[in-house]
Design a protein that fits this description.
349 residues; 12 helices
């Protein structure tokens, strides 16, 4: 019908129409809190083990001991909160920012685990959530600046490490090594890749000029410039609190709740709730067709051979993913050796 929420100047890195973005974020809030509720007994065991009141709880097969996971989470949250506060965010902004961030990352990890995709997106950035919840007219200049600089962390809303770690946990089921050794290996490789990416990106920027990097607009000239300009616009034209966003937030949560209820109570219901959440994401067109193909292939395999045939086909599809990564890596190596400073676009999204 053409309806949308107006005055969306603060919706950076968000799905459009804006109403759909907030609807999707409401669905993700339900995913996280429903997951916490269904796991309440296990989380209780984790807490009791962490404080030394449940020595019989076994955590030997986990990536981290429950004690390290719990106190690491507490220390990590305190460190992040202190860091953001010292960077200029007010305490209220810090709480809202961390809340929105963990809603996104936890829900995306859940979607990745259930949907089988390598990564996914979010419908709404934590920064947009903050500035629209309390309005920029009540946020100090230091908080606005800190929110602006925090965009370097969101990785285009692809979830940073949490969705990837969900796959690492699952891969541990197929390998003979201990999960904790697997975590150390993955963490070491991630640090090496991060350091290499930093060096190579800065080297290209300072050698050839950041504005000359690949893309239109260039990598350093598109969203990085856009974030600064739109933030400045919000400062000059303060955003007011808009209740219509919370209306769609509630619609998304209620819709996700109804779909989850149907899935858990009726065997004939064949629609998975995560489709509702993924349909609201940035660039969801990159997810729609893969989800459909995966659903169609899985349905045919189960009908033809049941669970036995399904399990036999798993190595084939794992091999397809590994082959894709190997192919991209080989293309990158060939470009570096034979086509320096030219290269070819093989993988984008």
């Amino acid at each position: 019908f053409g309806f949308d929420i107006r005055g969306a100047g603060g919706d950076q890195f968000c799905t459009f129409p804006t109403a759909v973005a907030w609807q999707g974020f409401g669905a993700m809030i339900f995913i996280v809190f429903w997951g916490i509720w269904t796991a309440r007994e296990h989380l209780g065991d984790v807490f009791q083990k962490a404080i030394g009141r449940a020595p019989d709880v076994d955590d030997s097969k986990e990536l981290l001991s429950y004690k390290m996971a719990f106190w690491g989470a507490v220390g990590g949250l305190l460190f992040m909160g202190l860091w953001l506060w010292r960077s200029g965010m007010s305490p209220v902004v810090v709480v809202l920012f961390l809340f929105a961030s963990f809603i996104l990352y936890l829900s995306m990890a859940r979607i990745v685990a259930e949907g089988g995709v390598p990564y996914t997106w979010g419908p709404l950035s934590p920064q947009s959530f903050v500035v629209n919840v309390i309005g920029t007219e009540t946020i100090t200049g230091a908080s606005i600046t800190s929110i602006l600089l925090s965009y370097s962390l969101i990785n285009y809303l692809r979830g940073l490490f949490m969705p990837a770690m969900a796959h690492v946990v699952r891969l541990g089921d197929f390998l003979s090594v201990q999960r904790r050794r697997l975590l150390g290996t993955v963490g070491g490789v991630a640090l090496i890749a991060l350091a290499g990416s930093f060096y190579y990106t800065l080297h290209l920027a300072y050698t050839h000029g950041a504005y000359n990097t690949y893309g239109f607009p260039p990598f350093f000239g598109g969203n990085p410039k856009g974030i600064f300009s739109t933030t400045l616009s919000m400062v000059r034209n303060p955003l007011m609190f808009d209740g219509s966003r919370f209306l769609f937030l509630g619609i998304g949560g209620i819709g996700m709740g109804l779909l989850t209820l149907m899935r858990s109570r009726f065997l004939w219901w064949g629609i998975h709730p995560i489709g509702f959440a993924t349909s609201t994401m940035i660039n969801s067109n990159f997810l729609g067709v893969p989800f459909f193909i995966a659903w169609a292939v899985k349905s045919m395999v189960l009908k033809m051979g049941g669970v036995v045939l399904y399990r036999k086909t798993l190595p084939l599809f794992l091999g397809l993913m590994v082959g894709y990564v190997v192919g991209i890596s080989l293309c990158s190596f060939v470009d570096m050796v034979f086509f320096p400073q030219e290269g070819h676009v093989v993988h984008t999204w």
